[in-house]
Amino acid sequence: MTEKSPKLRAALDGIPTYKPGKPAAADGPTAFKLSSNENPYPPLAGVLETATAAAASFNRYPDMACTALMAELAERFDVPPEHLATGTGSVGVAQQLVQSTAGPGDEVMYAWRSFEAYPIISQISGATSVRVPLTDGEVHDLDAMADAVTERTRLIFVCNPNNPTGTVVGRDGLTRFLDRVPNDVLVVLDEAYIEFIRDERVPNGIELYRERPNVCVLRTFSKAYGLAGLRVGFAIAHEPVAAALRKTAVPFGVSQLAQDAAVASLRSEDALRERVEALVAERARVSEALAGQGWTVPTSQANFVWLRLGERTVDFAAACEAAGVVVRPFAGEGVRVTIGEDEANDVFLRVAEEFRKEL
User: Fold this and answer.
1) Under a CB-based contact definition with an 8 Å cutoff, are residues 144 and 132 in contact?
2) Which residues pair with residue 306 across a beta bridge?
3) Each residue of 10-53: pLDDT tens digit?
4) pTM of the model
5) What is the DSSP string of 22-58?
6) Distance between alpha carbon 341 and the CA centroid of its chain, in Å?
7) Listed residue (190, 113, 182, 112) closest to 150, CA to CA
8) What is the DSSP letter of 141?
9) Low-confidence ranges of the chain (pLDDT < 50)
10) E strand or H helix at 123, and its extent?
11) pLDDT at position 358, please?
């Protein structure tokens, strides 16, 4: 008898595997990980203690409704609790958004290159990805994206700041774009790095959500708040969308450790701002040094910088690793380098300077 394999969905064929940032080697010269946009600082004061206390009860299920976290977020952002939904990091919520809006025959649009999870979660749902190239300045081409909207468009991701280029779209351009998008198309403003923005022309997405029912704002505790390992993100959206997100969430997906740590982090805003300011200052130092070496570096409003290296991308990443830092290469395109510890940034800058001389 011929053995047969279980039938799986054809939509899964050819889905690219999400590639996490390569970790620093446990043995060898590599000491610094600049590949995952992690916060290099330890948890904020009191957060570790809060999570440790929650761990004493991890024989119990977490609060599936995330009641305390929802209440804290509602107060912090002045939104109704019914307009909130949580998930396993912002990428988990992003997948819930696609599941809630798009299926076979529908289109999900995003800039490219942008967050590499977008094509994965779109294909999992059976939707068709529509990738709109960035401008020559590595910025979302909002006019081209608006032109690409069709009757099949169900969801549009606008990653602001954009991962991996760090570039942003301003209030005027974003408002014009939203005016052109049909009201029945959901626009998701993915603001995973919003805490690092210092360009006053960039709006807080919550301002736009308040006046537009088809705008959803996506946030995370993984980056500025430094809770990447606990996996907690959230969306702010009008009630029909938020309700759909709660329906598609994995039951008990956000652990009690994550919920309690997120609440404690929200109550440590002053300490958070100090850390973010330090990273923003270091971002400026790294960017200025790269420009001084002759690199063309897009102005980053995130906690990383982007170097477009084309065919030299893999070689550059290898040179960095040999020197002791791991960066995130996108073969044939460029490298994304997280702003990390000062010492790590110095090693990266030395590699960049030597590599530049060889170009």
Assistant:
1) yes
2) 336
3) 777 777 766 666 666 655 556 899 999 999 998 888 999 999 99
4) 0.93
5) PPPPSSSS--EE-SS----S-PPTTHHHHHHHHHTTT
6) 20
7) 182
8) -
9) none
10) helix 117-124
11) 86
Q: Which residue has the tokens 């992003």?
A: 94
Distance separating alpha carbons of residues 78 and 284, to the nearest angstrom: 32
CA-wise closest residue to 64 among 50, 78, 85, 82: 85
**DSSP string of 153-219?**
EEEEEEESSPTTT-----HHHHHHHHHHS-TTSEEEEE-TTGGG---TTSPPHHHHHHH-TTEEEEE
Q: Which two tokens stand for residue 305?
A: 């910088």
pLDDT value of position 17: 66
Q: Which amino acid is at 282?
A: E
Token pair of 257 as six digits = 């450790």
Bridge partners of 111, per DSSP, are 132
Length of the chain: 359
Map residue 145 onto helix, strand or coil: helix
- SS3 at position 346: helix
pLDDT at 243: 97
First to last CA, the chain: 61
**CA 203, 205, 211, 212 torsion-angle sign:** positive
Beta bridge partners of 107: 128, 153
**In this structure, what token pair is assigned to residue 111?**
């800039």
User: Cα(248)–Cα(232) distance, rounded to whole angstroms?
Assistant: 15
Helix (H, G, I), strand (E, B) or coil at 317: helix
d(CA 215, CA 236): 9
Pair of tokens at residue 1: 């008898």
Q: Is the dihedral of CA 36, 42, 45, 49 positive or negative?
A: positive
Identity of the amino acid at 136: D
123 Rama sector, left if φ>0, alpha if ψ -120 to 50, beta otherwise: alpha
What distance in Å separates the CA atoms of residue 359 and residue 356, rounded to the nearest whole number? 5
Count other Cβ atoms within 10 Å, centred on residue 197: 19
Determine the Cα angle at 64 with ends 59 and 66, to 5°.
Answer: 110
**How far is 62 from 7, CA to CA, in rounded Å?**
34
Please tell me whether the peptide bond between 113 and the residue prior to it is cis, using omega within 30 degrees of 0: yes
